[in-house]
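A brief tutorial aside. Many learners find it easier to grasp structure tokens once they have seen a single protein encoded end to end. The record that follows does exactly this for U6 snRNA-associated Sm-like protein LSm6. Read the sequence first, then the structure, and try to relate runs of similar tokens to stretches of the chain.
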Amino acid sequence: MSASPPKAGSPNDFLKSVIGKNVNVRLNSGIDYQGVLSCLDGYMNIALEQTVEYVDGQKKNEYGDAFIRGNNVMYITAIEK
């Protein structure tokens, strides 16, 4: 019996599973924001806590809270810490 690939969930399931966890948010401009996903809405507007900004892989700024407009978001990934 071979191992079966992990079952793919819906994007909505993924987003619900990472609320309160560390995520990386990549913007269309290529800038990354890493922090704790506080909340998001149906337009993909995002609120992050303990946010760190990375430009070209280099740390640029630290923010307490950051709010990102959804139309700027390219993707969101979970960060294992």
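Self-check: The mean pLDDT is 91. If you spotted this yourself, you are ready for the next section.
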